[in-house]
Amino acid sequence: MDMVTTILVCILSAMAASLSSAGGVGGGSLYLPILDLVGGLDLKTATALSAFMVAGGSLSNVLCNNLLLLNGSSIDYDIALLSQPCMLLGVGAGVVCNVVFPEWLVTALFALFLGLSTVKTFQAGFVCWNAESDGVVRVHAPAGGKGVEEALLMEEEGGGAGYETPWAKLAVLMLIWLCFFVLHVLNGDKDGKIITRVRPCGLKYWLITSSQVPIAIGFTAYILYRRRRNRHNKPDQQKVGMDTVVYNTIEALPVVVFPMAALLSGVLGGLFGIGGGLLINPVLLQIGVPPQVTAATTSFMVLFSSSMSMVQYLILGMKDIKQALVFSAVCFVASIVGLVTIQRAIVKSGRVSLIVFSVSAVMALSAVSITCFGAVDVWRKYIDGKNMGFKLPC
Predict the structure, then answer these.
(1) Of 77, 97, 150, 339, whose CB is crowded by the most CB atoms within 10 A?
(2) What are the boundaries of the signal sequence (predicted)?
(3) pLDDT in the model for residue 227
């Protein structure tokens, strides 16, 4: 890219990062069209650069949520623990589907899914807005509602305490990340080149790939066991503030809800070639998790998935690392600006629903941009005479 194009891409990426950060989503669905249609990069290069940009934006979001903006962290580590193994497993399955399905089908499914999700998220935003309006009138009323409305009333009554960072849970999350990362490294790239010489789609390849299933199930079962044991050991423990809302929300749901939602989000994320943040975020909102907790937790989970992709690209010999670092730094700074802006708007207006509407806006823009981007890509391949039907996984 020449200097003018690079500056234009940086400006557009900064705008996308600010908006995405406000909602706690990665923004990869906005970066890809910018890099391809504006920057003129091929899909492979654009995907690699997008991973760096998502990681940079998510890192700043997590740092802000833990250190700068909130009185404690809004990240719910229980949701992250219950979701992360199945989300990483789903990404692997989605990538296989992405290889098998024709591009036109992937684009159509993405447009359909995001269109429906955008409508549902906008509806959730209006419900949240109405609940907040009702809560302003009943500031001193008992918090008898659930989810967002209960969180709003608690914050108005001064009970919005954040979470402390549980280092043991963070260590487990890092271990999950390392296990899946090692499996991807062992499999290598499509040519079987990396530390090991695993033949693509050979017996060793599928054994390594299928081992993700017992690892995800094992970690999820262990997390559920530890959670149940801690609950029995401390039955009288009282949680306060926002933690009460999310704790009660989790307790009121079947234990398989979060792993199954994360698995579906991972599959769709791998299928569409984007991070799972844009997909798990509306799921958590629909479940009833408060918007601020949803945004912080989703961004935290996206940091794990995007950093894994980023390191994989480095190991596989990615080029243009300096350019990737520049774009990542732009998204890092822009994400801080977006997060600070939305937090000040929330404090000034008392409307947590602004987060929901920012997520809706990102989803709507993503639906339009990725659909246009996918249509252009499909047309290019059609003109070049490439196969437009289903393909073998290898």
Answers:
(1) 339
(2) 1-22
(3) 77
Closest by alpha carbon to 69, among 337, 313, 315? 337
β-partners of residue 163 are 73
What is the structure's pLDDT at 332? 93
Classify the C-alpha dihedral 206-211-214-216 as positive or negative.
Answer: negative
Contacts of 13 by beta carbon, 8 Å cutoff, 6+ apart? 31, 34, 53, 327, 330, 331, 334
Domain ranges of the chain: 3-383
**Structure-token pair, residue 354:** 């602004």
Cα 172 to Cα 201: distance, rounded to the nearest angstrom = 30
Confidence of residue 250 (pLDDT cuts 50, 70, 90): low
Q: Report the alpha-carbon distance of residue 128 to residue 133 in Å, rounded.
A: 9
Instruction: Report CA torsion sign: 330, 352, 119, 146.
Output: positive
Q: Which of 238, 323, 287, 392 is closest to 5 using CA atoms?
A: 323
3-state secondary structure of 68: helix
SS3 label, residue 357: helix
Which residues are registered as beta bridge partners of 73?
A: 163
Condensed to tens digits (0 to 9), the pLDDT of residues 80-114 reads: 888 889 888 887 787 778 778 887 887 788 788 77
Three-state SS across 255-322? CCHHHHHHHHHHHHHHHHCCCCHHHHHHHHHHHCCCHHHHHHHHHHHHHHHHHHHHHHHHHCCCCCHH
